[in-house]
Amino acid sequence: MRLTATTDGASEGVAARSLLDERLLHELEQLHRTRHETFLYGSDEALRHHTERSAELEAEYLRRFPNRLVTAGRTRSGARAREAAARIEATPR
Predict the structure, then answer these.
(1) Distance CA 28, CA 6 (A)
(2) pLDDT in tens, 6-61
(3) What Rg, from alpha-carbon coordinates, does the chain have?
(4) Are 70 and 79 in contact (CB under 8 A)?
(5) Which of 28, 1, 3, 17 shows the shortest CA–CA distance to 63?
(6) Rounded to whole angstroms, how far apart are CA atoms 58 and 78?
(7) For residue 5, what pLDDT band results from cuts at 50, 70 and 90?
(8) Higher pLDDT, residue 88 or 78
(9) How far apart are CA 45 and CA 49, in angstroms?
(10) What element of type H or E holds 45?
(11) DSSP 72
(12) C-alpha–C-alpha distance, residues 1 and 12, integer Å
């Protein structure tokens, strides 16, 4: 397993390409779960590292799963349809 390193040579974890699919998903879930807190309260260095690691893991996921499932509700047209349905529901009858 190859480790990534900081500019001073310290280890920062397993390289995304070396992770098994299950571990890659776990790492992504952890990063997404902690993003808001890191953004609000983390040091500049912590935020930089979090951003870089997120980009590395997300790029690896997209490389492995280029045809991943995309739900209609998570697209622009799906968002527009939700907005239109909400407007219809809010209109008095």
Answers:
(1) 20
(2) 444 444 679 999 999 999 999 999 999 999 999 999 999 999 999 999 999 999 99
(3) 19
(4) no
(5) 17
(6) 23
(7) very low
(8) 88
(9) 6
(10) helix 44-64
(11) G
(12) 13
